[in-house]
Design brief:
Number of helices: 7
CATH superfamily: Vaccinia Virus protein VP39
Radius of gyration: 16 Å
CATH topology: Rossmann fold
Number of domains: 1
Helix content: 25-40%
Number of strands: 8
CATH class: Alpha Beta
Structural class: alpha/beta
Order of helices and strands: EHHHEHEHEEHEHEE
Distance between the termini: 32 Å
């Protein structure tokens, strides 16, 4: 497992506003506090073994066997469990994760020391354009304040030919879970070609989109 270099980007006014909105908007503050509290016991939660780990395995299974990323970003990385699975599959990859909750960030840095973990919202990723081969996100998307902007940010940081692999809830719950069709439309609007979309885990939609290669 190798740390990925996360650039200290100079934020323009629009990007700074997006970051502040993502970290302070309405219910996001209470959600962040919820995840800060949960971060202390998150690694020991039975939900990891019965539920979240199945989602992680399902997502990784949908990434082509011949795809080998050099740089990987996980959005909503929590304590870094998916990043650690990614490190097993691609041990030479440089890894980075972002999460909105500072408690999760602290735990991820402890449990996943080989990755670069940063507190940031999906809507304002602290990475340069075209710097990542694979972006992942699991059970986080329905919490994003602006889901379309978050997808656009994933596309921005992807290199041509890179993949965005998303797994999220597909049934009404807290946050904003979207239908398969709505996710597909957001992916396509952001410039992604859908490579996979199915539901191998009950109540979840798995979607993998590819950023167009340069002509």
């Amino acid at each position: 497992m190798r740390k990925m270099r996360v650039e200290s980007l100079e934020l323009n006014d629009n990007l700074r506003a997006e970051m502040e909105t993502g970290m302070n908007h309405g219910n996001d503050h209470s959600e962040r506090e919820h995840f800060n509290r949960w971060s202390k016991t998150y690694e020991q939660s039975m939900s990891q073994w019965f539920f979240f780990d199945r989602v992680h395995r399902g997502l990784l299974a949908r990434i082509p066997a011949d795809f080998t990323p050099a740089e990987v970003l996980d959005i909503g990385c929590g304590t870094g469990r998916l990043l650690r699975k990614i490190a097993v599959r691609w041990p030479e990859a440089h890894l980075a994760g972002v999460d909105l909750a500072e408690g999760m960030v602290a735990q991820a840095r402890t449990h996943t020391p080989g990755a670069t973990i940063t507190q940031a919202p999906a809507e304002a990723l602290p990475l340069a354009d075209g710097s990542v081969d694979l972006v992942t996100s699991t059970t986080s998307f329905h919490h994003w304040n602006d889901q379309a902007q978050g997808i656009r940010e994933a596309v921005r940081v992807l290199r041509p030919g890179g993949l965005f692999a998303l797994a999220d809830m597909s049934v009404p719950a807290h946050g904003q879970p979207l239908s398969r069709r709505a996710i597909r439309e957001l992916f396509q609007a952001a410039g992604l070609t859908i490579r996979v979309q199915n539901s191998p885990v009950l109540f979840y939609t798995f979607t993998v989109g590819e950023k167009a290669s340069r002509a």
